[in-house]
Amino acid sequence: VRLVESGGGLVQPGGSLRLSCAASGFTFSRYDMSWYRQAPGKERELVAAINRAGGAINYADSVKGRFTISRDNAKNTGYLQMNSLKAEDTAVYYCNAKSSWLEYWGQGTQVTVSS
């Protein structure tokens, strides 16, 4: 079972990044998916969530209107499109897949927003 995030990096304020979460070893379409982030010295927080069918989308207030979560079950991949990035978005971003019985986490990808 694996969840592998990619797409992180260094970007200037106002820029964009698209994170991907590639799932393998389990039936991705049976799991709800979320993106979390953890900044240095802070607790991990929920950024966005999407249910297994691609609906019931929720965002943290801090990213509403700037981030978009999506998924492609045929490709076993989830995405987080991040626009208008701010310095306070700097964090390690984690992908999470959760069913009624099981939960999986990726290893995280670093996003740094700095000029």
Describe the structure.
With 115 residues, the chain is mainly beta. The chain has no helices and eleven strands. It is 0% helix and 51% strand.
List keywords for this structure.
115 residues; mainly beta; 0% helix
Topology of helices and strands:
Layout: E1 2-6, E2 9-11, E3 17-24, E4 32-38, E5 45-50, E6 58-59, E7 67-72, E8 77-82, E9 91-98, E10 103-105, E11 109-113
Parallel strand pairs: 2-11
Antiparallel strand pairs: 1-3, 3-8, 4-5, 4-9, 5-6, 7-8, 9-10, 9-11
Described by the principal axes of the CA atoms, the overall outline is: globular
Radius of gyration: 13 Å
Q: What is the makeup of the main sheet? A: 7 strands, mixed
Poorly predicted spans: none
Along the chain, the helix and strand elements come as EEEEEEEEEEE
How much of the sequence is in beta strands? over 45%
Oligomer: single chain
Tally of alpha and pi helices: 0
Average of pLDDT: 97
Distance from N terminus to C terminus (CA atoms, Å) equals 37 Å
DSSP helix fraction: under 10%
Q: What is the strand tally? A: 11
Going by helix content, strand content and strand pairing, the class is: mainly beta
